[in-house]
Amino acid sequence: MINPFSVKTPETLTSKDIATLFIDVFSDFPKVLEFNHTFIHGARGTGKSMMLRYLEPKVQLEAGKVQKYSDLEFFAIHIPIKTANYNLAELDRLTEAPYWIFAEHFFITLICSTILSKLNEIAPDNVNEEIKEFVQNVVELISWFGNESIENIESIEELEKIFLREKINIRRYLSLISFKKDNENYNGTIFDYEDFFVQFIKIVRELSFTPNGPVFLMVDDADNLSIRMQKILNNWVSYRTTNEICLKISTQKRYKTWRTSQDILIESPHDFTEIDINAIYTSKQNSSFYERIERIVEKRLEVAGINVSPHEFFPVDTRQKNSLDLIKEQIGADWDSGVKRVSNRKHDDITRYAVSEYMKQLESKKKSNLYSYAGFESLINISSGMIRYFLEPASRMFAELESRKKENITFIPCDLQDAIIKKWSEEYILIDFEKMKNDQTTRSHTEKTDKVDQLRNLIEALCTVFRIKLLSDDSERRFISFMLTKKPNSDLNDILDLAVEWGYLNISTISNKEGTGRNILYTLNRRLAPLFKLDPTGYAAHLSVTPEMLNIALLNPSQFVSERLRELKSINQQTLVQDTLDL
Q: pTM of the predicted model, to two decimals?
């Protein structure tokens, strides 16, 4: 059988594949479709690339959104930074004005080549004369910028070769100056954004078969660009060219600068709008992620010919469910009798304490490892708002079951779900932290102490406190987030940024208790829940932590745990809870 949950990079998928598998998310992210510049932030696996590729003309046609390309409201061009060499080491030899001019020329050359390739894909067969006129107009434009020797060019393929040849000339020149102390004069063509590229886009838009609206230039994974290349991209954002070009820039929250090459700050919403996928999919106001995953799984099961619902395909552990149901009945009965009543609603008490009481029972019997994380909803919770974090373990489960020579797979057994998800959670610490330690970019930011080890200490310290609270008799037990009471120092901030970059923490803000401002709130990635035996179904409270306490956790997790728990005992629990967040 075809594994319905196999994870492939969007760049390798055909237009038909994307049209078939993609679930419309633009009701959650309407800014993506607006005619303006937009930054789209999200950790790896949140579906940014899939969303951008879905906007491409061929995909839109396959999905039945339009009957012909010219009916589209925009012309989306996907520019995947990871799969193209936009960061030439030789460019670093250039400084000041030569760099900014030449790097922008290089950037534009590659993008124009990509646009012409996409244009050739959608050009109909009966527009030869129009194509010839288009080619001549572009050739004339190129001649204005230093290349007057282009002759007998009539097709888009031949025009594309002009830009490919220019790319080779750029590389040859950069290679040449690498062996010399001083830069040689460059006598070739020089393209810029405002005078050349915008005019090039206008010529493209005049074609009868191209979409009516602006070009959506979708720069994917832009944080893989060098800082100076990011500044060039920021230059383009600062230009008011959205009638012709709307930049849709995706990042994995590692975008390093918001300044242009002239050191001018670009700002939201004046110059651009922003979307944080993680924040939207992990906020209490938005529960659509559950619906998105359900629709994705339904479609994938349907394509694989498996005619069951997602809940049937990923069943819960029946024995655990029955035990939890008994506990819920007892909590409800206690609430009705007034013996144990914390909140004003019975349902809230049941939701807040059922899993805690069950885990306490397992702990008392030394059987805490028997808690099962199987079940469709549990797997969604553990995915922490990241589509890939659902598909990846689901793919492993299917592959493992298939390897046992199972035919006509209609569900994944609970024990297999639980075993795979626990191992996958363990890898997040044991394997991924080793990747971080070996990552040269990470190591370059590490001075005398290893920031990766400190981050691991921080995660383990926090998770230990969360686990102890979950097994307590306190009124608030389900913690999976913490709020910083004030701004951290630079070292702590670097480690927290590293945690956000690698997806261990998600960052947002929350009103402080005085109502005078907002504090930073960090939420743990629930992929860690099985490893640390936490409740992944949500959380009802967050810890209020000082930067000084977190600095202790970086170096001595045990000290942090003992001091934090001692501090919690002396604080009225009502002041501990700033808000109720039910994800």
A: 0.83
